[in-house]
Design goal:
The structure is a homodimer. By secondary structure, chain A is of the alpha+beta class. Chain A has five helices and ten strands; from the N terminus they run βααββββαβααββββ. The first copy, chain A, has a ten-stranded antiparallel beta sheet. Chain A is globular, with a radius of gyration of 18 Å. The termini of chain A are far apart. The model of chain A has no long low-confidence stretch (mean pLDDT 94). At the A-B interface, α1 and α4 of A face α1 and α4 of B.
Chain lengths: 248, 248
């Protein structure tokens, strides 16, 4: 049983955005995949939970970005569980490119929910002695911020209906598609010259297939972009990006 | 210089759809990535072309599907150039899973275009003796069908605006996103019980960032689904899927 788990990914053509560098949402695919592989090693996988009619869901993410590599680069994703409460598990990731350059540090928070009631379950009721999996000797990545926004009139809004290609094995909107839809609000122009320094994501509520959502977007300062996804007027997701408009 | 090139991919969590099996559009990512790696070996890569202010674009695809594997399976993608004309290059793919089961056979047709005029260029004017790269000893995969549709009134229509996450290094709608948007028209319900046996795709015209398209969808028989993407009323993409509604 490995407390620290590592996996490598070669950045494919489609993992990059139009600038030829790893896109942030595709980096998100890498960490979720690595988390799944590590969970399988630890005996706490989605598959194990599915037999108990339960599943993992993500409640929050914090990203600190350093240098996003180009297509073809191999990146190493290292992960470990760095904390837990009765119902939450904190998992950190350190992503480094083959030359040893830091790509990103990421922290994530997870819940186990009952697949029918969609309510959280106590971790110790599902897994015996869950806290023994925590690697407490490590330097922990900062936790995500709890976000609360009050948008001004005139915030930009994008309507979106959830489609087949947006949903994951839980049949709800895939967590990295929330992020991708948020990044889309920044527009391609931003990514030509700008850079995201860090991001905090709050997953408030599940969004199901064919539901319509509205993404609200506002710049609260030249360095801070805020987004809130709503369904029937109620928030389901929030994101805050610290940006710099000149990447050099 | 390798006339036949092979690369392997482990199907990640995000490469699968909600059924837990490799999604067709993500299989498309694998073949495009493999094509790019092979092109680099042959000295005919996008990067080489970019220096001449040219690029590869795809004009058509034919897929024959056998058995789409589950998340975690390693698949091998084998590719070779199986034909060329003055302006087109045909590239075939054979995808097999680790146990040796056939996943899919795919053929693709490519053009080199001038990045400024967006018009095709003679292959022999760009690459010395292009036809020497053709592996003519191999059993070739069927070429894509040229599609022409006349939709009835009452065809389903989906409007879509091209966003940051949809565009590729050429800054136009990524070829596999055309496919993904087409698959979305079938709806998640179809994929629960149904199966796509084969597909033909025609890429008629580039679609750029922020352009709005309409996807038309009609079943011409219980086994055949047809889609046409239009921009300003003019076709930019067509797809035909041979389906069976019971996957077993």
């Amino acid at each position: 049983m490995l407390n620290v788990f590592e996996n490598k990914y070669k950045i494919t053509y489609n993992d990059s955005d139009f600038t030829g560098r790893l896109s942030i949402a595709k980096l998100g695919n890498f960490i979720l995949d690595t988390a799944g592989l590590h969970a399988a090693e630890l005996g706490i996988s989605m598959r194990v939970l599915a037999e108990k009619k339960m599943t993992w869901v993500i409640s929050g993410l914090h990203f600190a970005f350093f240098d996003l590599p180009e297509t073809g680069t191999v990146v190493s994703v290292e992960t470990e569980i760095t904390g837990c409460t009765k119902i939450t598990c904190k998992r950190d990731f350190h992503i480094v490119s083959e030359g040893g350059r830091r790509v990103a540090d990421i922290s994530s928070e997870w819940l186990v929910i009952n697949a029918l009631t969609r309510r959280p379950v106590f971790l110790d009721e599902v897994f015996k002695d869950f806290s023994s999996l925590v690697n407490s000797n490590c330097g922990s990545v900062e936790k995500y911020k709890h976000l609360r926004f009050l948008f001004q009139d005139g915030a930009e809004v994008l309507k979106y209906r959830v489609m087949y290609s947006d949903i994951d094995i839980n049949a709800h909107l895939y967590s990295m598609r929330y992020l991708e839809i948020a990044l889309n609000m920044l527009g391609a122009g931003f990514f030509k010259t700008g850079k995201i320094l860090s991001a905090d994501l709050n997953f408030v509520s599940e969004v199901l297939y064919n539901q319509e959502v509205e993404m609200y977007y506002e710049k609260s300062s030249p360095q801070v972009c805020r987004m809130e996804m709503r369904r029937d007027g109620k928030p389901v997701f929030r994101a805050e990006f610290q940006i710099c408009s000149d990447k050099n």
